[in-house]
Specification:
Length: 347
């Protein structure tokens, strides 16, 4: 029997469910957690943060091997992945037309006939945000009026983050003034490599102040930090400085989001919450291109942080090509056949 010939109750496609033999590691944090205000820089916590790389890699390797979701549950998880996606275009040849088409896709990320077949046409499914360069913020804001979809701007000399500090702060303020409600900033990796945690703290704190009410997503550039211990320490400092979200990568590095790196970062989020009571979100970005990879990341978040993080206010994928593969998987669930990518155009 094909997927198309068997009835699928609509309610089965709404929850994210995974049978697990242990409870979530973090207590319930409420429907609308307060922003992370940050805290004083605690160098003792930073110095005490170490990572056993072999143990982290073993733990990360068990996630796709031990946990899986199939059939209607997989479809439900893939719909959840779409709702947590920062639909992104960061190409040098971006035009206003490209951005407008991307925003149209953000409003309607899955073909209407597939949503009808899945029984979820009434969900009002959209992506979590649209992410663009500053030059296209105003275009994206105009194209998304009334949708409730936030616009995120990459900033602070993205992707290297080496422009003069006054220019980086001015870029943040300009994007906020243009309507961006989320700012993805990049840190100076040299601060981490030198162990200059005060400089990193001061830098991210200045970014937070420049953001005002806009949420700050701090990109660590994990592929350029050398060690997992550096990733863990940079995560702690970024959260102490007031980051609302910590993000793996720009997507431009040689190595971007991997499960071992993600494991380390989400455990720092958990530790920070337990120490301070402040909630911080997580965004893996770069190299996440397949539906299967998105499921692996969702499983990581569920097992390490719990169900509350499986919502777009606390978890995002930074992705451009991921949506097409998820749509193909959803069509396979409905019809039993894999479609060509051109049936699900991005723009």
């Amino acid at each position: 029997m094909t997927s198309a010939s068997r009835p699928t109750p609509a309610h089965a496609l709404r929850p994210v469910a995974l049978h697990t033999d242990r409870p979530p590691r973090v207590d319930a944090i409420g429907e609308h957690p307060a922003r992370n205000p940050g805290s004083a820089l605690d160098l003792e916590v930073v110095a005490a943060t170490h990572v056993n790389r072999s143990a982290a890699e073993r733990r990360a390797a068990t996630l796709p091997a031990r946990r899986t979701v199939k059939k209607e549950w997989q479809a439900a998880w893939l719909l959840r992945a779409i709702s947590c996606m920062d639909l992104t275009t960061l190409a040098g040849d971006d035009t206003a037309g490209n951005v407008k088409r991307l925003c149209a896709k953000a409003r309607h990320p899955v073909r209407a006939d597939l949503l009808e077949a899945l029984g979820v046409a009434d969900l009002g499914l959209t992506v979590g945000a649209v992410c663009v360069y500053h030059a296209h913020v105003a275009t994206a804001v105009d194209a998304l009026v009334g949708s409730g979809i936030p616009v995120a701007a990459v900033s602070t000399g993205f992707p290297a983050g080496l422009s003069p500090m006054p220019q980086r702060l001015a870029e943040i303020r300009a994007s906020v003034a243009a309507g961006a409600t989320e700012i993805d900033v990049v840190i100076t990796r040299g601060h981490v490599l030198r162990g200059d945690w005060q400089a990193l703290y001061d830098e991210v704190r200045a970014f937070r102040e420049a953001c005002g009410d806009a949420h700050l997503k701090t990109i660590l550039g994990v592929g350029e930090l050398g060690t997992l211990t550096n990733v863990a320490r940079a995560s702690q400092v970024a959260m102490m400085a007031g980051s609302d979200v910590i993000k793996t990568s720009t997507g431009k590095e040689t190595s971007n989001a991997t499960l071992p790196v993600g494991l380390i970062m989400v455990r720092q989020i958990r530790d920070y919450l337990e120490r301070t009571g402040h909630v911080v979100g997580f965004k893996p970005a770069g190299g996440i291109r397949t539906a299967k990879q998105s499921l692996d990341w969702l499983i990581l978040i569920k097992e390490e942080l719990g169900d509350r993080w499986l919502r777009p206010d606390l978890f995002r994928f930074g992705a451009s090509g991921l949506l097409t593969d998820i749509e193909r998987q959803l069509e396979h669930f409905v019809t039993g056949r894999y479609s060509a990518a051109h049936r699900h155009p991005m723009v």
